[in-house]
């Protein structure tokens, strides 16, 4: 039994090391959220077991949870970089499948067809607005900026203000609001499934997305010309890395001791 107990401890330490290594590897990834590993003990017990004689038989991974704490906000000066100061996610739609995903990485750009996309090429979702930039619908749609205005002047610049309103400027000096960036929140953020590229998708555990305007209610404010850095604290991760390594070594030593005891027993029998 001691072999399997130590082995479970080694496997768990290896999982902890993998999670910490992943955090460290993404310390400079924009919008990344670190993960934490939780463990639970395993007890050999049953309905008729004397609780005074119940042995422990190891541990297991209870959960790997994501920490959605805000990362530091860094000024970039780029007009299409946005960060969310507070809760919420940018909603993006795949141009091929229409599948919705959610991200905190606000490094946006405009494609030749006018689509406002994130770094993965997914189209950012927003609310349609009137001529004053006031939302006219609570249902988000893909943000597509016209490449020419009514007078035929070509698109010259796109900007996003502190309220998340996307405005287009044209070569004849005119400008017009196009959309307001829609933010999404969830009843249980911890239930989101990470799918890589600093993106998440909704699950039954997270609940469906609820959309709102930046800076209203529980939704965070938009910070333009800014990006959110990873929330990984390298000093904290290095301490965790050393702890996980020592745990692995301690379990390996316990396994060596169990092996030595077994060898002694075998030698006595022979």
TrEMBL record:
Domain Flagellar hook protein FlgE/F/G-like D1: 83-168
Main location group: other
InterPro entries referenced in this protein's UniProt entry, alphabetically: Flag_bb_rod_N (IPR001444), Flagellar_FlgE/F/G (IPR020013), Flg_bb/hook_C_dom (IPR010930), FlgE/F/G-like (IPR037925), LlgE_F_G-like_D1 (IPR053967)
A Pfam family reported for this protein in Swiss-Prot or TrEMBL: Flg_bbr_C
Gene Ontology CC terms: bacterial-type flagellum basal body; bacterial-type flagellum hook; cytosol
Taxonomy, superkingdom: Bacteria
Residue span(s) of domain Flagellar basal-body/hook protein C-terminal: 224-268
Biological process according to GO: bacterial-type flagellum-dependent swarming motility
Flagellar basal body rod protein N-terminal domain sequence ranges: 5-33
Locations listed in the record: Bacterial flagellum basal body
Functional description taken from the UniProt entry: A flexible structure which links the flagellar filament to the drive apparatus in the basal body.
Protein name from the UniProt record: Flagellar hook protein FlgE
């Amino acid at each position: 039994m001691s072999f399997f107990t130590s082995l479970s401890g080694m496997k768990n330490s290896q999982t902890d090391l993998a999670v910490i290594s992943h955090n460290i590897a993404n310390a400079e990834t924009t919008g990344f959220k670190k993960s934490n590993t939780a463990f639970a003990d395993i007890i050999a017990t049953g309905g008729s077991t004397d609780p005074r004689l119940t042995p422990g038989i190891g541990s297991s991974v209870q959960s790997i949870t994501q920490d959605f704490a805000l990362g530091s906000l860094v000024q970039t000066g780029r007009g299409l970089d946005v960060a969310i100061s507070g809760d919420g996610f940018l909603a993006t739609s795949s141009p091929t499948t229409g599948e919705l995903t959610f991200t905190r990485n606000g490094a946006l750009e405009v494609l030749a067809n006018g689509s406002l996309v994130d770094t993965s090429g997914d189209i950012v979702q927003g609310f349609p607005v009137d001529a004053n930039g006031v939302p006219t619908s609570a249902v988000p749609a893909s943000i597509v900026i016209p490449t020419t205005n009514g007078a035929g002047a070509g698109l010259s610049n796109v900007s996003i203000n502190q309220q998340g309103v996307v405005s287009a400027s044209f070569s004849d000096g005119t400008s017009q609001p196009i959309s307001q960036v829609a933010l999404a929140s969830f009843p249980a953020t911890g239930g989101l499934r990470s799918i890589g590229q600093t993106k998440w998708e909704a699950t039954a555990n997270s609940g469906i997305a609820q959309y709102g305007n930046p800076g209203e209610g529980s939704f965070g404010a938009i910070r333009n010309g800014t990006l959110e850095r990873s929330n990984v604290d390298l000093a904290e991760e290095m301490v965790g890395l050393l702890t996980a390594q020592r745990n692995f070594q301690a379990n390996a030593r316990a396994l060596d001791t169990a092996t030595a005891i077994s060898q002694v027993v075998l030698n006595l029998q022979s």
